[in-house]
Amino acid sequence: MWTPLSRSIHIGMVAWLLWPFLGRAQADVDSLDVWVRRMHPAPFMRCMPSDWESKLDALKVGWEDMTHMEHVREVNALLQNLQDSHAAVSAWDWMWGVEREHGSVPIRWAVEGHGLWVTESAIDGLPAGTRVLSLNGMEASECAAVVRDLGNVEGLSPVGQVRTGVHSLTPWIMGQTQSDTLHVQWLDRTSGAVKLVAIPGVPLRRAGRAWRPISQKGPAVQWTFPEEENPLGLDGASLLAVSSFSQGRFGKYQRRLWKGFQRAKELGLPVVIDLRGNAGGQSARMEMLWRHVANGRRKLPFGLVAKQSPETRRDIHRHYKRLRKRWVDKHKDTSQDARYIYDLAHLPMGELDTLEFGVQPLVDWRFQGPVCLLMDGESASATVSFAGAFKQGRRGPVFGEPCLGPQQGTMGNPMLKMLPESGIVISMSTAVYMAEASGDWGSTSPVQPDVFIPQMWRNKDALRANLQAWIDSHTPAE
Predict the structure, then answer these.
(1) Three-class SS string for 256-311?
(2) Residues 421, 290 within the same domain
(3) Nearest CA to 301 among 330, 351, 336, 267?
(4) Pair (439, 297) in one structural domain
(5) Model confidence over 49-104: pLDDT tens digits?
(6) Three-state DSSP class for 438?
(7) pTM of the predicted protein model
(8) What range does the domain containing 177 cover?
(9) Are residue 110 and residue 32 in the same domain, yes or no?
């Protein structure tokens, strides 16, 4: 049906005037939708396409009235609907931008319900355990809502959502208020008085020194034996803390695991494996840790589902060439890794491929003594697969909080994309790592601990008491 010329001119002028706003929203939101559908192997495994589309449309309507920080928050909240911890706004990118402009504040937070607390602080007069009432005029309940929108989710994971989201709170507040100072209104536990402290942001060139009192540096694999001071205050056990399955050189990771477990076998005492805060990394490193403590043969991971897209094809062909291509082609029938690279390199565009892994061997040199596991809401990705195998295999009790993902496995192999107008960098999964065979990924809940320690950041005595009781029950009598 034709439209009268005068009306066409009027509509055209309105559209031209609104294009700088509506065009930006359209370009960013439509790009996001395209990447989700094109790159993600199973975008609607945990949410309905209609829900996703309605939230996309709602975001377009309000986009023009939002600040950049609100764009970050809303895009991340939108991606949470996929219930995929790897599909999120890349916090690394936008947080560095804010801290370069406004500085860094050495405080860590915890959110419980609608409340906000200090968990660690390098600021004099603002100790751990302090209840915070507002930040730069934003009430604690709204800060808690921001944290939940900025967090990561994998399945139904409310604990992991707030544990991951709190790391983004300070830069988001300072970026939203465009302030170089964090104004903290807090409640003095002794006097009951409400106090206010203004904390200037530390320039990035001095931020490392400012954070040092509450930072723990060291290798990804750290052992503490009974004759050493135990950071958890435990007696009669070897403590293994693995902070990451990606940091550091692979050879050093392997050696530290091997030497530590050899010493643990000589001592004949229980081992506590601490995977709190371990956001995952390389599956091979997780598998290596499992082989050291395994009590049965199993596929870990069980399999991987990958999807071919222009992004994954470009990435695989950066590696599948020259000498490496010749090695892959030669060993594709004898090497599992070569088979995976070969199959993905030749996978048609838009199609899925499922790679089933072999059974993990039960090695003679494994540690067969008592082992327990400690995890929290930030234990994610490959760490979830380890925790699921540990619990399903009944290798030992699990202490702490629900981790960030279900026993069946998590998404993985993320790639970065930048929204064309806002410049927001997002991470998008390109594969599903199946820790076990499952036909019901839509109704998954996180791996649950056997001994739940709520609010571990301030219930350290309860954590220590429960762990020590388990250690004592497995310590040989003298």
Answers:
(1) HHHHHHHHHHHHCCCEEEECCCCCCECHHHHHHHHHHHCCCCECCCCEEEEECCHH
(2) yes
(3) 336
(4) yes
(5) 999 999 999 999 889 899 999 999 999 999 999 999 999 999 989 999 999 999 99
(6) coil
(7) 0.90
(8) 96-205
(9) no
